[in-house]
Amino acid sequence: MAPFKPFQDDRSQYPEKRADGTLDIDLSSGKYLKLWQGPQHPGITGNMSVELTVCGDEVVEGKTHVGYLHRGFEKLMERRTFIQCFPIVCRICVPEPDFNEYCYAAAVEELAGIKVPEKANWIRTLILEMGRINSYLMYLGGQAGAFGMGVIGQWTTYVRDLMLDRFEELTGARIYHMFIMPGGVRDGLPDGFEARMEETLQEIESTLQDVYEAMFCNAIYKKRAVGVGYIDPALLDSYGVTGPTARAAGVAKDVRRDQPYLVYPELDFEPVVATESDIYARSDVRRRDLLVSIDLIRQILVRMPKAGPVMAPLPNVLHWKIPRGETYVRGECSRGEYGYYLVTDGSGYPRRVNVRGPSYTHAMALLERFIVNVNIADVAGLMVSLHTYPPEIER
Amino acid sequence: MRELLESLTTPYSLTDPVEQRPDLAFVTAGRGQLRPLLMHLRDKEGFTHLVILTAVDWLEEGEFQLTYLLSDRTHGRDIGVRVMIPRDEATMESIHDIWPTAATYQRELREMFGIDFPGSTRLNEDFILEGWADIPPYRRDFDTLKYADETYKQRPGRETRDPAQHMKEQLYPDGK
Description:
The structure holds 2 protein chains of 2 kinds.
Chain A: E1 33-37, E2 49-55, E3 58-65, H1 73-78, H2 82-89, H3 98-112, H4 118-146, H5 150-171, E4 180-181, E5 184-185, H6 193-216, H7 219-225, H8 243-247, H9 255-258, H10 279-303, E6 325-333, E7 336-344, E8 350-356, H11 359-370, H12 376-385, H13 391-394
Antiparallel strand pairs in A: 1-2, 2-3, 4-5, 6-7, 7-8
Helix pairs in contact in A: 2-3, 4-5, 4-10, 4-12, 5-6, 6-10
Chain B: H1 2-9, E1 15-21, E2 24-29, H2 34-43, E3 49-58, E4 63-72, E5 77-86, H3 102-113, H4 144-151, H5 163-171
Parallel strand pairs in B: 2-5
Antiparallel strand pairs in B: 1-2, 3-4, 4-5
């Protein structure tokens, strides 16, 4: 069946455009209404808001507003030594902070010429996959909740908590782990970790089966999600779309395969792809990707070196200067391409750090375009399906 | 990557090529060469994905560095195109017609660095800051400490320590 495309050429309700390209919306006519979704709203992802202009039940224009979370991380880092930046970066993304740690550490190591021990690379990969599972579990609850199925979020939050327990015993922290630092990781695995992780993975698999039956086989969910929020694959590059959103449109974009990093070249997996490019396809890609991550964690725990250092020797971090240079390091997080652009000038402080989060493109240009012609009730579902986290936009 | 750089250097007058990794290179292009170079990279060389567009403030040299990072997924390679523009004439041609998503980056650069991109969509709308009247805050000459001291009131009883000195005392309590 051909996917339903919400963008039709003949849209009688759609307002005319003025000469400068903006929409001719006369609010005093009574035909249009402004509606703010956010910053405090159950149908919004995090602290951001969408300014909707609606005509009846149909959105004719949407503008994203951010700024509620701006803490100036990039500027903060310019006034801190390289090691002082390490505990700051994870705070840029709450549900999946580990990519900030990895990308920052890898960029610093590259410019400083530090070689990371092999075991540390395996542990880094493990941490990143655990973080991906956390993020996806949170997403599944949000996606179901956006369409009125609150119980799914309770199930996924429970199993996410089990994964947070594993994080706690491995890193000492549940949310901000501060574990992947320049030079390697802070420690090895605790005794008996593998067995406890296996129990957690089995629990997640069992819950995912329940989620599949209750959510993905649910007629109401299908009716709300199939065919809604269609993204044309031809527009992916123009709008900087990456990750599961691109994979649901039939393009197997996955940094883990395209430009492998850490130990991904040694792991056996294939990116999950769908072709329908609607809300349902995006959620299904993420559900199947969760199963891939579970499999990857099992492979990592079996093949990880049992002994060896996890930290390379660092210079005195109080006097650590890095020669002038610039680099960009990326990884595939649960939402798409996450990257750090780091510029050094030979001093003890970074000259510039720029964080590239996938939400930057997904929640701004992409959302503003694809929110048009959607019903008000579907805005939340469409937004969650792009899996956006506002802190990445503001940094 | 080296072949690509060699083939582009003469026609686009590129300078300062750096092969950072086998899959990542940086080059500097002139202001007027940027658009044809980006079009060539996108349409002929497969660099279809605009990864980031950001600025670096080289205050001492009186220049902004704009970095356009492009990615070619088919060959797994990236190229960063630098363009140096003077700080006192911070204007650059917009590329939002090549990549619509660039409009967001340009809007942020306008707000945070005060770099103008005439013609870019919604360029002058507030992005993150609301009603900002000071100099653009991501410029190196914006003093965050001075701004915070003047804007916010310290709570009584709060101590402020120099981070470097504090870390030194924590790590080497006996002063060695």
